[in-house]
Automatic annotation (TrEMBL):
InterPro entries: GH, Rv2525c-like_Glyco_Hydro-like. Residues 19-184 form the Rv2525c-like glycoside hydrolase-like domain. Residues 202-220 have a biased composition (Pro residues). It holds the Pfam family Rv2525c_GlyHyd-like. Residues 200-231, 260-282 are annotated as: Disordered. The lineage of its organism: Bacteria, Bacillati, Actinomycetota, Actinomycetes, Mycobacteriales. Residues 221-231, 266-280 have a biased composition (Low complexity). This is Protein exported by TAT pathway. It comes from the Bacteria.
Amino acid sequence: MTLQGLDYAGGIIGGGTVVASGYAFVCRYLSDGGSTLPNKKLTPSEAADLQANGVGIVSNWETTADMMLGGYQQGVVDAQRAWAQHKACGGPDGRPIYFSADFDATPAQQAQIDDYLRGAASVIGFAQVGIYGGYWPVSRALSNGTAAWAWQTQAWSGGNQDSRINLLQNNNAGYAYVGGVQCDLNQALTADFGQWNAAVPTTPPVTPPVTPPTGEPPVSNPNANASPQSVADSLDGILDGKPLDYRVVDMLRVRQLGDIASNTDPNAPGAPGPNAEGPNRSTSVFDQVKTLADVLTGRWEINGKFYDFGELLYLVAVKLGVGS
């Protein structure tokens, strides 16, 4: 079932009224409306009430309609302010903020819009940057890789709708008046559209089970959502205990082509013999690649917990100091 939601700036609507009116979420501004729209900005108390009633909240930032034309630096400033208010209202990490291009943006203005979004990403991370706007700027931002989330309005869209969007503002349906407040109507087109509240989990989904090549029963990943520190603690002896082949460690340490020769060619100057033990043991490129392929497609059980390649790569990189 498609979830229906509201966005509004002219007042505060109680969470119970939102639910009783048949709506599941609200898109609320993090920016101030000044004297003309004193209730535009989401407040901590309002957010708490919405959450208490199970209403999803979507964070949005808009000061002026064409604020994105300020480019990269404006994106930096706005993202800093938006994130501060998002957190003040109880917004969790990992949830996006939609930045508004609330005007009929031309192709010539897209460079400034993209730069604005890049500036925002430099503060909160690309994965949390969303764009609100008509079909054209939204579509171009998605194609240009400057927005990870998209909320399209039917305004300035010429009947077009991008298939990649998360939210659609249904201007053609007119306004709704909920709790005496004029509201725009919205539809959620994806299960996760950036909402946050007490009822909807915002942690990443558990990695799907993978059937081991040995024909053993599939295993789940009970530790997929554990913190990096807790996972690191459980793997405290990963290198000393040698559960991970040293050939993989060798490849993670390789940073220059010259290192590859010394690690893979037993005849290279200074290379250890084929029977050497420890992390400098030489082996063929084929064997190293095969080992990496096994790691990429397999799962590893350590201390009764299962880890996929991404989790292991992070932990091994931390222990080896890669990138430091």
